[in-house]
Amino acid sequence: MSPNYLLKRLLMIVYTLFIVSLVVFAITQVLPADAAVMMLGENATDQALEALRQQMGLNDPVWLQYLHWLGGILHGDFGQSLRTGQPVGPAMFQALGRSLLLAVLSIALMLVLAIPLGVLAAIRRGKVADMVVSLISYAGVSLPEFVTATLAVLFVADWAKLLPPTGYVPLTENFLDGLAHLALPVCVVSIILIAHVSRMVRSELVDVLHTDYIRAARLKGLSTSRVLFGHALRNALLPTITVVALDVGYLLGGIIVVEEIFALPGIGRQLIVAIQTRDLPAIQAGVLLMAATYSIVNFAADILYAWLDKRIQYD
């Protein structure tokens, strides 16, 4: 992978985030919310409101407000929350860390289950195992997160009382209790990921197993396991990387629903609260951080793709 390509991709990320910042700032400007009224309350005098608007630069032209806001972000200042009066940045980064923990655990569970299921379905094509995996995949894709999350809370937490229904405990405070609170959200988020990836692995592996180089490997006397895991699976997983990277977009959207249902204080739940309270700086910071996360994950997927397949050359 050439340095020029890496530079181009990094510049593309910067360009994407710049466009996102423009769109987010423009949308929040047309929302029916007055930052001065949100901070001082509806009973504030006109003089106090006007003085605060002047202090916050709300009377400046929109383009100047955007430049001030963007300049603050470049210096790590995401503004002040209209709801709490505290800086938005630290709270949003802390919430993003919780969401990333949920996402990483969900992807790890997905990889542990989806790849073996896809391999099993491929080598047992047309048999009972293949049909069972297909049924699991179709069910996973068909059920939206709010349905699976509600059923999980109802049956696993309330009825069977196996796991806590809601809440969050930092792993640094109590590791086992923290995992117990994350177990249901992780399972719910990973269901659709498992469905997508297992079907992709199955489809790609079936195609790879019928290629000439796999036949040649078998004719050389290589064992079935070595042919499968040493040659076929590695190439079959290449398109899966793209699917996982694209699923990060779903993951970010799905996490918002899951965090709200399970009362998990991640960036999705913070964003919902910000929208409900019309906390404009928090909305701007949350959307921008989610866009940055998606861009970085896709960049990492490109690098991993080229690392796994040396034939791929990015210029």
TrEMBL record:
The chain crosses the membrane at residues 12-31, 100-123, 135-159, 179-197, 236-258, 287-308. Belongs to the binding-protein-dependent transport system permease family. One of its GO terms (cellular component) is plasma membrane. Its main location: membrane. It comes from the Bacteria. The keyword Transmembrane applies. It is found in: Cell membrane. It comes from Rhizobium multihospitium. This is Peptide/nickel transport system permease protein. Keywords: Cell membrane, Membrane, Transmembrane, Transmembrane helix, Transport. Residues 96-301 form the ABC transmembrane type-1 domain. It is a multi-pass membrane protein. GO terms for molecular function: dipeptide transmembrane transporter activity.
